[in-house]
Amino acid sequence: MAYLLNRSTAVAVIGAGSMGAGIAQLAAQSGHAVRLHDAQAGAAAAALGRIAADLDGAVKRGKLQADERATVLARISAADTLDALGGCGLVVEAIVERLDVKQGLFRALEKLLASDAVLATNTSSISITAVAQGLQHPQRLIGWHFFNPATRMKLVEIIRGVETDQALVPAMHALSKAWGKTSVDAPNTPGFIVNRVARPYYAEGLRLLAEGLAPAAAIDKLMVEAGGFALGPFELMDLIGLDVNLSVTESVFQATAYDPRYAPHVIQQELVRSGRFGRKTGRGFYDHGKDAAPRSVPTVAVAASPHTLPTLHFASHPGPLLPLLQRLQAAGIHVAAREGLPDDTFVMGDTHIALTDGRTAAERGAANDGAPLLLLDLARDYATTTHLGAAANLAGAAHLPALAGVLAAANIALIELADVAGLALMRTVCCLANEAADVMTWTGTTARDIDTAMLLGTAYPIGPLAWADALGAARVSGVLANLQAHYGEVRYRRAPALSRARFDNARFHG
Ligand SMILES: NC(=O)c1ccc[n+]([C@@H]2O[C@H](COP(=O)([O-])OP(=O)(O)OC[C@H]3O[C@@H](n4cnc5c(N)ncnc54)[C@H](O)[C@@H]3O)[C@@H](O)[C@H]2O)c1
């Protein structure tokens, strides 16, 4: 069957909450006549008010002409009853996230609408197949997952259920494009792409915090300054709402038959139990009140004195640390190569400094009779980062200030981390890449769709699979293997696609 969805298609949006209002506005801005319905009396009218206010803002900022504002608003009407939606060619459902309620709604809609009307659900966590269950024409129901705020976020995920007509997919991609969105094909598996691949960002952050890697503010600082993420995991959870974030985690956990990898963390559960939901309640990981103390992240004080900074001796294969070496050299530090040093390391006096590989400094130092060892965390770009994290074994701790002195010459601040396996950024990035590779493996989703979704849906600095390509599948796989050995937990099991890429020396992005 051919599906024709264009400006002349009348669109019904059901549910006039945050998502429905945004989707209705978007549809009207794209030229459609829109009918907005909500079960709660007055909700659609209130949403129209919010839409008008948003358009007013656009006019004030010079992004929209006043007459266009009027035209867009005139295209949207509130529909008091479901019956008033008859004749619409596309329904976008954005009601409460409950399967029984969504199923009931679509079954009622089938009675009102033509048999070729397209039914789209904006569910973030429910199986599209389940939503379509019991319909007479389940082939015309599809997942169309927008992100909040729908008017501004560029991404939509398009999800087929078992019964969804394949011919509907290109029509939805075309419509997404006409609405100014970038669309990806996402699998009908828990969390689709974005809400699934992003899980380790929160989960590993919470585990690192629990294990005492560093305070939340220090972890956030590293993820932003050294990692290039827009927000650290704790700031982000506070923004999303800890309750909302926990409920996504719980729904993925449940839908994966309680795979322990997705288990909610007790720190988050406790904050939610105490009503600390983040910004919206004024407190979460951080205090957001007016009188909140400014956040400070202590950095390692530079060692007092030496008149001359030590010479650094680098391994012949410094790996990802090469740009750091070049930067330090440009800052006046004397560097020289030394034969026989392990890859990804350098030496400062009698202190060995190595890029983390997922083992603790204690474990690596023990292989060298407990000699002083410092482990550096990953940076997105060692040539420009303003901060770096480092951990030490017992004998190495006294040498952190000397390292801070060397880094300070290149204007890099050092954040002290506890000796927790994989540190902050390396561990998080490897887990994100592994999750992405898992989605690829088990659902056939392309690397391009996954990375596009993560770039546009979460504002990561680089797609997790492109990041894995840059680090090399062997390195990512090695870090995960070390984490698995250290913790003895299945959560760090490697995705088959990652293991294959490692042995084939292959890249995810061709
Ligand atoms: N908020 C997000 O960030 C986000 C992002 C993507 C997808 N989603 C999904 O979008 C949907 C809506 O989320 P939201 O955040 O806009 O919720 P919301 O609570 O802001 O709004 C839901 C609206 O639906 C109405 N409603 C409930 N049952 C109804 C029914 N049977 N018929 C008509 N109206 C009904 C409610 O009165 C409410 O106004 C959910 O499925 C959610 O999972 C949310």
The Cα radius of gyration reads 26 Å
Spans of at least 5 consecutive residues with low confidence: none
Bound molecules: nicotinamide-adenine-dinucleotide
Number of domains: 3
Biggest sheet architecture: 8 strands, mixed
Helix count from the secondary structure assignment? 20
Percentage of β-strand residues: 5-15%
What is the topological layout?
Blueprint: E1 11-14, H1 18-29, E2 34-37, H2 43-60, H3 66-75, E3 76-79, E4 90-93, H4 99-112, E5 118-121, H5 128-132, E6 141-146, E7 155-159, H6 168-178, E8 182-186, H7 194-197, H8 199-210, H9 216-225, H10 233-240, H11 242-255, H12 266-273, E9 312-314, H13 322-330, E10 335-337, E11 345-348, E12 351-355, H14 361-366, E13 373-376, E14 387-392, H15 400-408, E15 413-416, H16 425-443, H17 447-458, H18 464-471, H19 473-487, H20 496-504
Parallel strand pairs: 1-2, 1-4, 2-3, 4-5, 5-6, 7-8, 9-10, 12-13, 14-15
Antiparallel strand pairs: 6-7, 9-11, 11-12, 13-14
Helix pairs in contact: 1-2, 8-16, 10-11, 16-18, 16-19, 19-20
The chain binds nicotinamide-adenine-dinucleotide (NAD).
Nicotinamide-adenine-dinucleotide binds at residues 14-20, 38-40, 43, 94-97, 101, 105, 122-124, 146-148.
Any descriptors?
510 residues; alpha/beta; Rossmann fold; N-(1-d-carboxylethyl)-l-norvaline Dehydrogenase, domain 2; Transcription Regulator spoIIAA; 3 domains; eight-stranded mixed β-sheet; seven-stranded mixed β-sheet; elongated; binds nicotinamide-adenine-dinucleotide
